[in-house]
Amino acid sequence: MKSLLVTVESQAYHKSCFKCSHGGCPITPSNYAALEGILYCKHHFSQLFKEKGSYNHLIKSASIKRAAASVPES
Question: 27 FRET partner, CA 20 to 30 A, in 1, 9, 19, 40?
Fold first, then answer.
């Protein structure tokens, strides 16, 4: 039976949820990058670095995404 989960960095993801947070493209354990717990495909991770020359904006964005994800819906 095929596993429906992908585990990376001690986190388990549904295969359908394991995608780039920037472009939504599918990623695999061999072609992803993570920063502050946010997943990116290697292409977009590199592209976002080249646009700004650092990862500072990604760290800020990751903090906002984590905060939004932890707010329960009412």
Answer: 1
Separation of alpha carbons 34 and 59, rounded Å: 10
pTM above 0.70, yes or no: no
Domains of the chain, by residue range, sit at 5-70
DSSP assignment, residue 53?
S
Collapse the DSSP code of 34 into the 3-class scheme (helix H, G, I; strand E, B; otherwise coil) and give the result.
strand
Provide the CATH topology of domain 5-70: Cysteine Rich Protein (2.10.110)
Confidence category of residue 20, pLDDT binned at 50, 70, 90? very high
Q: What angle do CA 11, 41, 58 make, to 5 degrees?
A: 80
pLDDT score recorded for residue 30: 92
CB 48 within 8 A of CB 58: yes
Interatomic CA distance for residues 15 and 46, integer angstroms: 23
